[in-house]
């Protein structure tokens, strides 16, 4: 019998998490979907930003900046980024990739932690990057009419990080819970777009009240300040609460369940 | 080594694995044998912490697999070769694996060459054949140079060269002192390479012994004999307590005696013999005999095992 090197070096939990995060990062960027969704977000944000910028630049009475224009462009653009987070969550379950994934990272809490950190962190970071780049493009195209004041930029980019990060958390949580791209996509679009829009414009007071508790209404409010009846103090806990709730449910399924597809 | 104790898995009403206990020792190839649906894959999935056992436990080197910090350095496993993201290249699939256990990235190129995928490494898995996926899965299993290896039907989809290569690989891994468990539903596939066999049927343990013992001991030796007066011959053979069954074409199958003994008995009864031979039960027959009673799917085709059963 040959003596094989016995792996006796203790490996700290922090190191295992760091390695798993590195693996998750590689997982994310070695599939084409990630790049396509990023490109889509950039095109939508910049395109809508530049187009809306021409209107804003033509109406100086509005006193808009490039940042103000981008705040509106992020609303549709964020969906491409949420789709990125969502497919990062469902990919393992729809392809069977969960089998090797759990063989390589059998400590499920570590896998869950790394997946949430990397997917939510990356998506939020990409949101900031896309919004920042689009604002620079708007500033470049529409010259001095739409400026780029630093203070407003900092606030907007922080808000984008919060809104897109929370949206990514919701999308990832639903992805882990439903394990189906179509199912999770429908749920995200309902919660972030369709229900807030329809309930918010419904004729019943209860429907409008309900809409205020949906993540989509608060996300739009945080970015654009509309509808005005909400407040930041209410909207922030709403978006974070939805993200946390979805991640807890999805996380439990990953921790407890069999590694089915 | 792998230690399995009272392992049980129930999927709804299906009892896929039923109170299974056995050990897989280092330095040998252990064949894990059972018909379709016997519970081989389910057992392996539980060893790897993919499925949660309903009861019992599976330990790898004394620990549950799911607690390992660097699992790839201890256990390499090939399960479903199709279970991976088709959009990644073979190389990036292994890069992800290497990152999880802190394995140097040059190992990725090494194992890719070792399994013969060097040329296809930068192509998407989508375009791989079944055999290529199988090889990629084996590359992942070898990546961390682990001491314990599990292969679920590794020769599926491989060509003749591939099958020969796998056999050599399993032999070498065991000779290096590693623990090797390889499942199959065909005895013929593992009989040449397995030192031990663990046979299961319907989730239950049927046999756990060396390959020799299983092939030699479990299929009972028989004698085939044909003579002038079959009835007299049968009576003469039954008198000392032998079991005699019709073997078709007027042949008799005698259990529990050698050809010499049968010849002597026929001579004493004055029956001329036309044919007399020892029947070593074929390997497949021994296996069918073991699992025949425990197969989940009962087919209507006459099983060869019946000719070896005593007539009642
Ligand atoms: N996820 C599941 N849900 C329900 N039943 C399952 C599941 N996985 C396996 N089974 C059942 O458990 C039993 C054992 O299946 P398993 O895949 O372990 O068999 P196997 O020995 O690997 O067979 P094969 O030689 O066909 O690969 C079968 O009856 C199967 O239908
Ligand atoms: Mg199987």
Automatic annotation (TrEMBL), chain A:
Per UniProt, the keywords (alphabetical) are:
Membrane, Transmembrane, Transmembrane helix
Give me the segments passing through the membrane. Answer: 28-52, 64-89, 110-136, 156-178, 185-207, 235-255
Answer yes or no on keyword Transmembrane helix: yes
- Name this polypeptide is given: ABC-2 family transporter protein
TrEMBL record, chain B:
Organism listed in the record = Trujillonella endophytica
Write the record's keywords in alphabetical order, separated by commas: ATP-binding, Nucleotide-binding, Transport
PROSITE patterns the record matches: ABC_TRANSPORTER_1, ABC_TRANSPORTER_2
MF annotations from Gene Ontology: ATP binding; ATP hydrolysis activity
Claim: Cell membrane is one of the keywords in the record: no
The UniProt family comment states: Belongs to the ABC transporter superfamily.
**UniProt protein name:** ABC-2 type transport system ATP-binding protein
Q: Which SUPFAM superfamilies match?
A: P-loop containing nucleoside triphosphate hydrolases
| InterPro entries named among the record's database cross-references | AAA+_ATPase (IPR003593), ABC_transporter-like_ATP-bd (IPR003439), ABC_transporter-like_CS (IPR017871), P-loop_NTPase (IPR027417)
Which intervals hold domain ABC transporter? 2-227
Identify the domain of life.
Answer: Bacteria
């Amino acid at each position: 019998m040959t003596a094989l090197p016995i792996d006796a070096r203790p490996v700290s939990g922090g190191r295992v998490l760091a390695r798993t995060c590195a693996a998750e990062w590689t997982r994310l960027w070695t599939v084409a979907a990630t790049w396509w969704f990023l490109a889509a977000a950039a095109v939508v944000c910049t395109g809508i930003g530049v187009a809306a910028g021409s209107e804003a630049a033509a109406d100086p009475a509005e006193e808009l900046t490039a940042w103000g224009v981008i705040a509106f462009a992020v609303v549709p653009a964020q969906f491409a980024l949420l789709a990125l987070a969502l497919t990062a969550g469902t990919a393992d379950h729809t392809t069977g990739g969960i089998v090797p994934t759990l063989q390589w990272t059998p400590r499920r809490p570590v896998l869950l932690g790394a997946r949430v950190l990397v997917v939510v962190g990356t998506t939020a970071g990409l949101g900031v990057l896309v919004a920042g780049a689009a604002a620079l493009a708007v500033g470049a195209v529409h010259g001095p009419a739409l400026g780029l004041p630093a203070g407003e930029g900092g606030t907007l980019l922080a808000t984008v990080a919060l809104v897109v990060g929370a949206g990514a958390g919701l999308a990832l949580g639903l992805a882990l819970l439903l394990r189906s791209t179509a199912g999770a996509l429908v749920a995200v679009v309902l919660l972030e777009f369709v229900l807030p829009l329809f309930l918010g414009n419904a004729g019943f007071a209860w429907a409008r009240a309900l809409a205020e508790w949906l993540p989509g209404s608060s996300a739009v409010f945080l970015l654009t300040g509309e509808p005005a009846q909400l407040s930041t103090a209410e909207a922030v806990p709403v978006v974070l609460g939805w993200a946390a709730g979805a991640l807890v449910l999805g996380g439990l399924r990953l921790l407890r369940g069999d590694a089915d597809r | 080594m792998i230690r399995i104790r009272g392992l049980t898995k129930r999927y709804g009403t299906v009892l896929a694995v039923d109170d299974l206990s056995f050990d897989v020792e280092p330095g040998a190839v252990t064949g894990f044998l059972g018909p379709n649906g016997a519970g081989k894959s389910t057992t392996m999935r539980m060893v790897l912490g993919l499925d949660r056992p309903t009861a019992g436990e599976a330990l790898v080197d004394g620990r549950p697999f799911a607690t390992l910090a660097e699992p790839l350095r201890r256990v390499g496993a090939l399960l479903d070769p199709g279970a991976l993201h088709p959009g990644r290249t073979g190389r990036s699939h292994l890069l992800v694996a290497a990152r999880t256990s802190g394995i140097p990235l040059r190992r990725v190129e090494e194992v890719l060459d070792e399994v013969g995928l060097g040329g296809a490494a930068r192509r998407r898995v989508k375009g791989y054949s079944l055999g290529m996926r199988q090889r990629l899965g084996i590359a992942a299993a070898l990546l961390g140079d682990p001491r314990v290896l599990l292969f679920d039907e590794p020769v599926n989809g491989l060509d003749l060269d591939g099958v020969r290569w796998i056999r050599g690989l399993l032999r070498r891994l065991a000779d290096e002192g590693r623990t090797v468990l390889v499942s199959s539903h065909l005895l013929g596939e593992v009989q040449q390479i397995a030192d031990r066999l663990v046979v299961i049927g319907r989730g239950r343990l049927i046999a756990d012994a060396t390959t020799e013992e299983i092939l030699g001991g479990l299929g009972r030796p028989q004698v085939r004999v044909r003579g002038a007066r079959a009835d007299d011959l049968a009576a003469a053979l039954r008198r000392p307590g032998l079991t005699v069954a019709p073997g078709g074409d007027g042949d008799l199958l005698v259990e529990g005696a050698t050809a010499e003994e049968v010849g002597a008995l026929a001579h004493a009864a004055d029956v001329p013999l036309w044919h007399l031979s020892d029947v070593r039960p074929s390997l497949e027959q021994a296996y069918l005999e073991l699992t025949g009673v425990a197969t989940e799917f009962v087919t209507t085709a006459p099983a060869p095992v019946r000719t070896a059963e005593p007539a009642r």
